[in-house]
Structures are given as C-alpha cells and as structure tokens.
Amino acid sequence: MSSASPHAPAALRRSLGVVDGVAVAASSTAATTSIAIGMGTIASVVGLQGPALLLLAFLPVLGIATAYTRLNRSEPNCGNGYTWVGRSLGPWPGFLTGWVTVAGSVVFCAYTSAIMGSVVLAFANKAGLRTVAGVALDPTSMGITTAVGLVILLGLAALAVTGIRAATRFQFALLVFEYAVLLGFCAWAMITGDHAFSWSWFDPFAISDGTAFAKGLVLAVFFFWGWDAAFSVTEETKGPEDSSRSGLIALFAMLGLFLFASVAFQREMSLTELITNGPQALPYLGEKLASEPWATLPLVALMFSAAASVQSTLIPTARGLLAMGRDRTMGPVWKRVHPRYGTPAAGTAVVLAVSSVIALLAVAIPKLSDMLLAAVNSIGLVVSLYYGLTSLACAVRFRTAARREGWRTAVLAVGVPAVSGVALLGLGGYLGYSYLTMSDHFELSPDNGWFMFSLPALIVLSGLVMAAVAKYGRRSPYFTTGRGTDAEALTLPMDKTPA
Q1: Which of 387, 72, 111, 61 has its CA nearest to residue 224?
Q2: pLDDT in tens, 82-103
Q3: SS3 category, 135
Q4: What angle do CA 98, 102, 107 make, to 5 degrees?
Q5: Residue 238: closest CA among 80, 83, 489, 22
Q6: Cα 396 from Cα 420, distance rounded (Å)
Q7: Which residue intervals of 407-477 are DSSP H helices?
Q8: 328-361 pLDDT tens trace
C-alpha cells in the first residue's frame, strides 16, 4: 500500500495515516522547555561555554540521527532502538535499550507534571486569579502544582489516545506560538543586550575541569532528547523516509534555536543572572525586555512547551511499549490498541497512572522528591546508554553491506554511528565515574554523587531483572531470535472480516 507503511495493520493505516509533519511537531515542541529549564543549569556547570557544548554535543547526536535514519529505512518499527539493538547486538542489550527509554520517560513525565502546574499557576496569578474555591493557587506549593500538572497530564494523555492527527494539530499550534515568541524575544535580546558577544563562548577548551566538561556535554546531549520521537510513529506515516526526514529537520531546527537562544540569553543576562534564575530564565528574559502584557508571553510559551514536551514523551513511550508487548517481552496490556482510534490506549493509560503515582508520592515523601530530582539530573547517563547502543547496532548491522556498497555506506552507516556511539558511551562512563568519586559516602541527596549514580544503575539493574522475567517467565520469542515483530502481529476488531 503506497500511502502508508506496509508494517502498519489496516486499522492503523485507516485511523492514523499521518503525514510526515507529525514528527517535526513531536520532536521540536520540547525545545522551548530545554532552553527555559536548561540554560541556567548548563551555565551553572560550565559558565558561559554553553554555546560551545551545545554545538559540540550536536556532532554525536547527528551521528546517532544518521544511525536511526539508516536503521529505520531498513526496518521501520515503533520499537526502534529496542528492536534494532535486539537484532544486531542481542536480545539482552535490546531489551535494556527499550527499558531504559521507558523508565527515563516515565521519570520525566512525573517530574515535569509539577513544572507544568507551577507555570500554569504563575500565569494564573499574573492574570489575577489567585484562589479557587478557597484554595490558594500558589506556584511554589508542591502539592498544588502537582495536582494541577496531573490534571493537564490527563488531558494530554486523552489527546494522545484519540489519534496522532489530533495530537499533531495541537503540537503544531503550540510550536508556531512557542517559536514566534522565543525567536522574537531572543532577537530583541541580541539587539539590545548589554553584554558584548564573545567568540570565547564557543571555545570548549576554556572549560578546564574534566568533570564539568563531561557533565555539561551530557547535559547538552540531553537538550536534544526527544528529536527521535519521529521514529516511534514510523508505522503510522506514509513511509519510513517521512520519519527520517522529519527527525533530521527537527534536529537541525533545534540546533539553530539552541545556539541562537544561548547567545541571546548571554547577551542580555550575566552569568550570575543565568544561574540565579535557573528554570525561570525565559520568563525573566520577558520581564527584562518588555512590560505587561507582553512580558507574560515567554511564560505562556514555556507553559505550552512544557505541555507539548510531555505529550511528545507519552506518544513514543506508549508505542515503544506496544512493540515490547507484541513481542511478549512485556505483558499483554501493552499491546492493546483502541478499536476506534488505533492507538495504544491501554499502554498510554498505564504510563499516565505510573507517572501520576510517582509524582504524588514525591509530594508525600520528601526523600522521594529528592530521588526524582536526582534521577532527572542524572538521566543523561540513561540517554547516553540507549543512544550509544543504537548507534553501535547500526554499525554492526551494516558492516557487511559496507563492503558491497562502497565508501559512502562505510562512512555513513558504519563509521559515523560507531564513533558517535563509542563517544556517548565513553562520555557516560566517565560521568558515572565522576559521580562515584565526587562523594566519599552515600547520602539521600540530589547533590550526592553516589546517590546520583545509584538511580541510573537501579534503572539498568531493574531492566536486567525484567529481561530475565521476559525470557524465562514469559518465554518471549524475542530472546530466541532477537527480532521484533511488526504491527501485522496485531489484529484489531476493525480488521476482522464480518461473519
């Protein structure tokens, strides 16, 4: 069928049949959140060398994007890394790739729910709404912000369930507004900023501390996290090349936006201002550059971006679990597809429930809140792991094809992915070592190195346990062949021929 991926069942093709714009929206909308939350954080680690690390981090990410593109062309599958690594490197690293992706996404959704609530309440306060039914709408209250964030999370999950088309229209509307506001304010900051531009901002050698360099570079890689959302809907696009093209467009758009914004922020704000304002750097920029009501626009853009980034996390997470469910490496609930919308509705609901429980427990248990913050701070290790393994899977899979197809394949399908994968795994390993050596004892604190290392390690260990359950308990055929099943393994009610 020429208008849809042959790997999608008829129900998915009829109900979703999306165009290649899906992935651009899904991959790009989180960029504003990365800028707003990350600029102050990266400045606290490497000073004013943030632009240098963003540019440097783009190189391995581009190599990984090359690997994703080649693998997706060869085997389009919503499980992407989980499926590709399983086939090329073996089922154990394949399952681990899928598991750490899911775990990182769930932690991100749980953590971001409170951020969404805080931004929404800050906007409500600016609009003059400070109480509802006697409840103070305090953007600094962990309980209130989490409750509001979870209501928004529920709405985003419902939108994700009703189909990619509806979610894409929503994402594009947010994307246009976010980029217009961000580009407008950053352009004005570039023109009126009091701090002179310096080429030293692009000099990575100005960072003398190796640990700070590694931590900053992993953080910069994390800025780009989400560009690969394109590949999770590959079975629902018109063809695999649509996802690849959209993912690359999103990646280059994010790079341009990150560099432009980082320079603009540093033109307008001092290093102290960047670090002090942290996640509020974007609203602070609006207050510095404009008066009300225009000063509120960056806050609205951040509110929209936080919502969009959560939705663009929910969509690929549920589809990755769908791939694992149809391979029986995860339970049958994950492969249940909505008979009308053709989306993994049950999986989306479970991801929503787990994220909500973690977010609520973080309110009730202060130490769990610290654990959640530490998990977010160290999630770059998890991202490095699954990006690195996927890149190596590409190099292994196409090593023989390189001999037949010549130097171009050898470079783009083997050399570049291999170098990028080794670089990210090496960087993650060095950062892990730095965490272990930065503290001389274990303490339940988000600033404790052993604690920061223990959470990614716990995710990996739990992944190995779940892999053992899948192999020996569920007896998944994935652990025999290492190959994932495609969507034709699912039979939906609307696909059945009437008796």
Answers
A1: 61
A2: 999 999 999 999 999 999 999 9
A3: strand
A4: 150
A5: 22
A6: 13
A7: 407-409, 416-438, 449-468
A8: 999 888 988 888 877 888 889 999 999 999 888 8
Under 8 Å between Cβ of 95 and 329: yes
441 Rama sector, left if φ>0, alpha if ψ -120 to 50, beta otherwise: beta
- Tokens 């990350």 — which residue? 38
**In the chain, what is the straight-line distance between the N-terminal and C-terminal CA atoms, in Å?**
25
The pTM assigned to this predicted structure is 0.84
Long-range contacts (CB closer than 8 Å, 24 or more residues apart) made by 416-419: 416/63, 416/66, 416/67, 417/63, 417/64, 417/66, 417/67, 417/70, 417/391, 417/392, 418/391, 418/392, 419/60, 419/63
CA-based nearest residue to 163, from 335, 324, 319: 319
Tokens of 91: 């089922």
Cβ neighbours around 195 below 10 Å, total: 15
**DSSP string computed for 98-131:** HHHHHHHHHHHHHHHHHHHHHHHHHHHHHTT--E
C-alpha distances (whole Å) from 278 to each of 153, 285, 308, 450 are 24, 11, 20, 24
Burial class of residue 115 in the structure, from the number of CB atoms within 10 Å of its CB (0-12 exposed, 13-18 middle, 19+ buried):
buried
